[in-house]
Protein 1
Amino acid sequence: MTVRLRPGTGRANVALIVVSVMLAVLIGPLNSTMIAVALPAITHDFGMRSSAGTWLVTVYLITMAALMPVVGKLGDRFGRRPVMLVGLVAFFVASAGAAIAPSFAVLMASRIAQAAAASVLMPNGIAILRETVSRQRLGTAIGMVGLAAPLAAAAGPPVGSLLLAASGWRALFVLNLAVLIVPLAVGWLLLPRHTRSGSGGKFDVVGSMLVCVLLVAFAGLLDLPASGWAVAGWALLLVVSGAVLLRQERNHPDPAVALGLFVNPPFAVASAGILLSNFAMYGPLLSLPLLLADRPHWPDGATGGVIAAMMVAVAVLAPFGGWLSDHVGQRIPAAIGFVVTAAGLAPLAFAGPQLSAVGVGVALAVAGVGMGLSNSALQTMSVEAVDPSETGMASGVYSTCRYLGSITVSALLAGPLASSVQNAAGFAAPFLTYTAAAAIGAVLIALLPLFSHFRKPVSCD
């Protein structure tokens, strides 16, 4: 699976660029899961209630999801290299601030800064790959980068536990400083310098702010507030911000989010697909620890093992899914991936309480194989569906859809599915939901040929 540079990239070494993007991309998911094991220690040190610690995770995820379309647009406008380097430096500084935070408020501010910086890395990293890797090898490169996110998310809790036991919770943030050295050095030395492709008009500040408000309102509504007034408030904010955003983006010559993206069939299907895929992946991640906590005769440590089986399968198959995309197109691995995912999750819906640890692990590994096949294909489909000058913005919207999948399933598990996952026999409702999400993804991919302009890059001006 050799990856080649586009002609004219000069001295840049594609292997180092891909590794650099991989390390930059893994920072976001690593820091979203690694801190979970340290929350009790953090709240204890600062004398806070344990519930306050969850905001360190919630605010991080919402900030990343809300900012990704905006920072992707910044890369389109001002160039990938400077925006990427600013993101890496900002994450370095924010991590240093978190490591020495003297109060919970400072730590929270550092986490928000971390999330804002991390939101830069995925969309602009993918855009850099599109600019430096030949189209014939783009899927392979995206697949190689694609293994970083699930591995980082899976590695977060065990790595966090080791650091917490060895040096305390501040060591979790110090780790980031070491991880960032390579992407910073490679970015400075090798990333292409002439990558500015956006228009020179006035930047859409109002549209960028409205995108953030819209996504925050969506996340707030999904959180299912206990008060009816709170629900009404979030719903009103969602509707008003959405309406104003539509008007703003239609009238702006260089919108923060081009509305044409959502009527571009390959991009729209790819974005919906990654939302469904992340929904199907994060559902088991979040629900199995609850479903298996009080299960009789369940082996100690087996829960982490069966979840790891799924995440490792996702990571291992991601490069192969990208390679398949290069050789047979994106639809085939995406469709097969969703079907395999549904086939892996369905046994847990119908026979979850009766399956042994090995049976649960095998089912999740099969689902992970499907996710690995489909995710790289979907990412490649999304970037090839748009004009190169809009790759950053499109990658940002796509990445936001990825996070919305995890946010949506989290809300369902805290609300309508909460009673099911508190019961060791309650596999049916949640896993039928995850299986349905994968099946819908397969249907969307199967219907894609019915839409026009498939495989043709479409400008979203």
Protein 2
Amino acid sequence: MSRSCLAVILAAGDSTRMKSSMSKVLHPVANRPMIAHVMAAVASAGMTDAALVVGRDAEKVAKAGSLEGISVKSFLQTERLGTGHAVLAAREAIAEGFDDVLVAYGDVPLITAAPFAAAREKLAEGADVVVIGFHTDKPFGYGRLLVENGELVAIREEKDATDEERKVTWCNSGLMAINGKKALALLDKIGNSNAKGEYYLTDLVEIARAEGGKVVAVDAPETELTGCNNRAELAVIEKLWQERRRHELMVSGVSMIAPETVFLSFDTEIGQDALIEPNVVFGPGVTIDGGAVIHAFSHIEGAHVSAGATVGPFARLRPGADLAEGSKVGNFCEVKNGKIGEGAKVNHLTYIGDAVVGAHANIGAGTITCNYDGVNKHQTVIGANSFVGSNSSLVAPVSIGDGAYVASGSVITENVPADALALGRARQEVKPERAKLIRERALAIKAARKPAK
């Protein structure tokens, strides 16, 4: 679409019902602020200019609403005098003369590009105002869209509607598109002659029609227009987002055994033929390649898992974890800023931090890379085809050469050459009959502590 468009995003509310120390639009859905979801939809609809109307936490909201590829200008709304007044806070941007002006809200994070595109298409066909509506089987409380001969003649609020009008199930979402060449003229005619003394954006319908303009409505899925006013509604939005994204992944070829127990982030990418078992949580920045297996009860954030690799069950991958093809990180293991080479195995009860594990290396149970000296982090390098025995501590900075062996229970503080065997533990001693003496002494102490009867 070659027409220019300005998206005006209203995000200045006080969020009192949210009962929060921060603005409502900063609350995350899928680990991303609500306002950022809206801006992403704006970007995907091909719009390159946005006016962000801010109030509470203005700087934080502006930062969260910044998105690469969109020129975003922020405008402070110092008074809350209705939606019409809020849009006019961006007067300077609207006056630049865009073909289309689209008005959306910062607390509708499920919105996609499709409703925006549909509204702009109607503007291109000659409409002056386009209202985005939704059909619902529970219309109570919403303004009804009253349409005659294909044109929107009024938005009737619940309290003002007749019994017949209340039967209408097409409702107003609050989102709207306006002919950019007429936008300021129309907006300036909104009055505040109502009980609250506020300026309502919905008055544009009557104003535009009175001017001889054309007003129409387009439809959008009800879920996409779900707004958020409190924590309960936030949880519903999170649920809806997760359901939508899981479905997208599964129809693209990802297997989920119990999808309702898998939680994704806004940027989670999972390839075809990957298998996700129950109760897996993906934090931001995760890429799972096709054919990988994520076993149950794993938590993954900021990590990359290559094709054929397996994770878990009960594993944690932290930022910087990078698993090569065919590698394995098993149960009760944690990897942070660690590269696990092709075919390498970190099977159980192990911590790999700030480390490189070579191809086909085997890391025994209970192994720890001791990467932190209390001030700085240090790297451990474990060579290809090496073997680290169970319950070993590798004190960084240290390297284990290719093909080297580390004996179980060792504390390794010096580099181990390739193909060498390293032992870092006390020599075993056996003292015959000593266990019997220790046991007798312990029993005597216990008996002495018993109170006399």
Protein 3
Amino acid sequence: MEPETGIAIAAQAMVGAALIVMAIGSILLIKRLSELSPSGWWGVALGIVFAFLTGVALLLPSTSHWLTTYLSPLFPDGLVESEIAEFAWISAAIVAPFAAIAVCLLISAAIEMPSRADLEHRVAAHRRTLEKLRETRKDLEERVAVRSREVYEAKKRLEIALRDTNITVSMQDLSLRYVWIRNAPSGFDAQYMLGRTDDEILPNKTSEETMSLKQRVIDTGEEERGQVIVQNGHQLRYFDLTAEPYHNEDGSIAGILSIAVEVTEQKEREERLRSVLREMSHRSKNTLTILLGIARQTAQRSKSLSEFLASFDARLRALVGSQDLLVEHDWRAIPLDELVRTQIKPYLDGAERRLHLEGPSVRIRAEPAQNLGLALHELARNAQRFGALSDTKGQINVFWTLDPADDPNTLKITWQEKDGPEVSPPTSPPGFGQTMTERILARALDGNAVINYLPEGVVCKIDVSMAHVET
């Protein structure tokens, strides 16, 4: 081999190897590029192919001698070197047009690539955009924080406003399923109600009426009001319901907003008031009947207007005393000992030691208590005028007994006067007191009443039906 030929082949080999290394390096570098246009990418790709093929073409002549030397035993006819050389030049010729095209595309790509100034301008623009995005993000975060605080404060104000009240606020979608609820009524679980309709929560009849009212709101877009009655065990619960639509931004109906106010206590108060008014009317009629009877009986037995006024006033005060006791005990049964003391006390002149009471704790119901009070008043008034209270030594004992073995249906009351002046039976027709006790009182108590005028003192025995007694 000629020296110059050897140098040329070595040079070709070095250039070919360099081109192959450049192609491999370009492949590694291209992975880091991200801003080339599609044509630029094709140019770079073809450039890499060109470099690789050119390197191979240049390496083939330099390696043909090596191949011929080591492979000649396999080809004794000496065809290897010529065929390899021919293949190398043919490959170089084929690669040459592609190389030209690749160079043109690379130049085009290079022209399209931005300059350093352009890159710096783009970076600066990107930085400004990033800064604006940061400012926008900060502003949005501040707005979201402010809005979140407003929503939280509104929620807290609503919770505070609804706390310890009987007001429930809720929202339902177009299918009338609960999506939001605050201050659910006692006995209802808000978490359970979410996602359900009223017909899944309330009794059938109640749910039908409620669903119908709310559906009308969705159909008409108008507010609806109504009363909902819920059966809760043996108790009826009442709710005043107001439902109105709420809308999307485009004005379409998104669902309904409802406010339910439980008015059960108000209904119960109204019912109690009606009951009290009915009772007052009944009692007023009874009182008027008693007053008319007192007035009529007093007038028949009075010899003058002054005597009538004095007697009527005393009996009216006795009736008022009994009613004061009834008011004090909410017009329920009153203790018998209190009734006795109230009627006798005005005639004791402060000497309450002259009155002795004994008996178990019992109460007399309202209507018979008024009649019994009048009878006790008449006995005490007669005792002051003619009996044990007409002097300073007389005593009055009032005792009562319950004897289930002897008579389980009767309360026995005994009025006994002693240590007073000797008593004589009346010679004139029975007065108001005796008539009141033995006739009117006996009927009112569904029992019996008898006055005995014993020389040592008056004794009155009164039997009261247990239907008028509370123990």
